[in-house]
Amino acid sequence: MKIAFFDTKEYDKQHFDVANSKFKFDLTYFEPRLNESTVLLAKGFDVVCPFVNATINEKVIEKLKEYGVKLIALRSAGFNHVDIKAAKKAGIPVVRVPAYSPHAVAEAAFALLLTLIRKLQHAYVRTREFNFSLSGLVGFDLYGKTIGIIGTGKIGRCAIDIAKGFGMKVLAFDPYPANIDGVEFVSFETLIREADVISLHCPLTQDNYHLINKESISKMKK
């Protein structure tokens, strides 16, 4: 089986080569992303394996079918960059990574949050320039603050656990509210109005496209 990987880096090659050692598939790595301009590279392959920044629209899928591609294997959990209807019409199955480590994603979100509220990125740049002034670097505590979690799937629940560890009050919004200890489910309007910090943990869909926009931002705490 011949597999074309798109949008690859050196670490992709390293790990997929190791994983392929027991399967012996014929792997080819391409640096460009899969889109209308690069789809020609897929000619002669059974499978294409793109990443999140690919543009797999109807035109790309038509070409994949023409070139004999039998499977689109995404290296991502999200699939909003694929025209699923066109793929189904073309008879090309689309598979994805069902979940990354939810703990790793939630922890990364809090790492970024701490960087922002403690202005660590600015302190880092100053330190590199031998500037040790603390002026303008005062942040705020998470303890006692209210966090709004949008999306309470696996990752959202991990984020909730971390927030509780910081002593935060947790508000949550989800189309399908669950019974989670210590969490108050509220409307989206209430969440954006009352939360000091908002963390999104939901897949991109047509229903939540531009959920955070000029109007919703205007209702948030200043």
Kindly list the characteristics that best describe this protein.
alpha/beta, Rossmann fold, 2 domains, 5-stranded parallel sheet, 4-stranded parallel sheet, 8 helices
What does this 3D model show about the protein?
Helix 4 crosses helix 6. Helix 6 links the parallel strand 6 (146-150) and strand 7 (169-173). With 222 residues, the protein is an alpha/beta fold. 34% of the residues lie in helices and 15% in strands. The protein has a 5-stranded parallel sheet with strand order 2-1-3-4-5. The longest helix has 16 residues, at 102-117. The model has no long low-confidence stretch (mean pLDDT 97). It folds into 2 domains: 2-95, NAD(P)-binding Rossmann-like Domain (Rossmann fold, 3-Layer(aba) Sandwich); 102-218, Rossmann fold, CATH 3.40.50.720. It contains 8 helices and 9 strands.
Question: Care to give the gist of this entry?
Answer:
This protein has 222 residues and is of the alpha/beta class. It contains 8 helices and 9 strands. The strands form 2 sheets. Strands 2-1-3-4-5 form a 5-stranded parallel sheet. The protein has a 4-stranded parallel sheet with strand order 8-7-6-9, sandwiched between helices.
